[in-house]
Amino acid sequence: MDRKRFVALLRTALMQLDDLQNLRRSPLLPLLAGDDASNPIALQQILLEEIESLKYASGVRSARIYEILYYRYVEQLSQKEVAYQLGISVRQLRREQANAIEYLADRLWSRYNLAESPGAQQETPSPPIDERESLDREIAWLRDGFRAEVSHPAAELSEALRDAAVLAERYRVKLQQEIPPNLPKAAVPPLALRQAFLTVLTAVIPPSADQSLKIMASEAETSLFLSLRQTGEDTQERVATGCDLTSLDIASKLLSPFGGQVAMVSPHPLHVEITIPIVGSIPILLVDDNPDARRLLERYAASSRFRLITTGEWSQIIPLARRFRVHAIVLDVMMPEADGWDILAQLHHHPDTQDIPIVICTILPQRELADLLGATAFVQKPVTQQAFLKALEEVTSERRGPD
Question: Are residues 294 and 240 part of one domain?
């Protein structure tokens, strides 16, 4: 049996998890159940246990896959119900569900040595994946699959602190919180934010042994700052030699696709700061005469850290840019009363807009021309949410708006 057929059979078995009659006829039964090849309950139990094992597996991805497989096949909720439960669209759930089945198939294929079983078609072995490549894949999975989700920082921090409590107890570290109520929503998926918090906590708790760790939050115009400071009588003399800088780097990588970061402010006393982007905190001016295009891009940005101010009139660009102190301008080229290239030139020479990055967004395939005429970035219509937000991330990464 080749792996492609194995995945198809696994998908069918999951859909029939409570149907013992059909499980009895599944080719997976003799393949996985061994001596219990005549007992469909054995196959049912194998699949249930494999799904349950994901609940306790390490890694950001495993937790999400467990939720999808558990709600969809163990609880047997409909796709619509699961999507609602996870706060995503049905279309996104379908993509994640297919990936979850592939992931489960990989685990079973490896655990039962199916590549070496009689009749199995041998595949060319993949080269070993190093830890950095594996991390990059998980981060890409988070970025592409969960970009539209927002989170409540206080709730995710509370979950992370609950999980880290056992570590704090082991090292006799007292965790003190000074978190104000009603923190703004974060433009980071809950899964990424919680894991970033937990990764930082596991890095800073051990070197703070027999000390207190104060956790404070403050808010700026575009970001929320979470500060973790070591406190105690001898903190000035102690150097945090045991702080796991690799873990801090991993936590920063978890947040970076969404505009966040983790930084070591001071090693003695230990002070680490987490920067978390706030939903709708960065104003972007969108200039497009097509109202449908404006509504689409507004939906794309709705759960990100970008807030779109839109207009279909080129004469409003300077007043709106000045009023909202925008960090970038997204400009259509084909507009009825003005040529986008002329507008681009005018914006470059006007004192209120000459330093603002400009993204050309047009159906015309004129990337090179846009570059030569001074555009900061170019996206061609029809534009995807990923391409649009990526362009905004790139043009605002070095500039945070006019003073």
Answer: no
Nearest to 25 by CA among 10, 8, 40: 40
Backbone angles phi, psi at 382, to 5 degrees: -70, 135
CATH code at 202? Answer: 3.30.565.10
Confidence (pTM)? 0.58
Q: Which tokens hold the place of 288?
A: 């497009």
Exposure on the CB side of residue 215, measured as CA atoms within 13 A: 21
Q: What is the sign, positive or negative, of the torsion defined by CA atoms of 273, 214, 158, 219?
A: negative
Residue 320 near residue 285, CB atoms below 8 Å: yes
CATH number at residue 316: 3.40.50.2300
Host domain of residue 28: 3-126
- What are the start-end ranges of the E strands in 25-146? none
CA distance 389 to 147: 9
The Cα 155–Cα 267 span in angstroms is 28
- The pLDDT tens digits of the residues spanning 273-299 come to 999 999 888 999 999 999 988 999 998
pLDDT, residue 174, reads 94
pLDDT winner (highest mean) among 89-93, 254-258, 327-331: 327-331
Contact in structure between 173 and 208 (CB atoms under 8 Å): yes
Per-residue confidence (pLDDT) for residue 125, from 0 to 100? 46
Q: What are phi and psi of 398, to 5 degrees?
A: -100, -15
DSSP per position, 33-44: HGGGTT-HHHHH
Structure confidence by residue, pLDDT tens digits, 208-245: 899 999 999 998 878 899 999 998 755 444 444 467 78
Mind listing the pLDDT tens digit for each residue in 116-156? 655 555 444 444 445 555 566 666 666 555 556 788 999 99
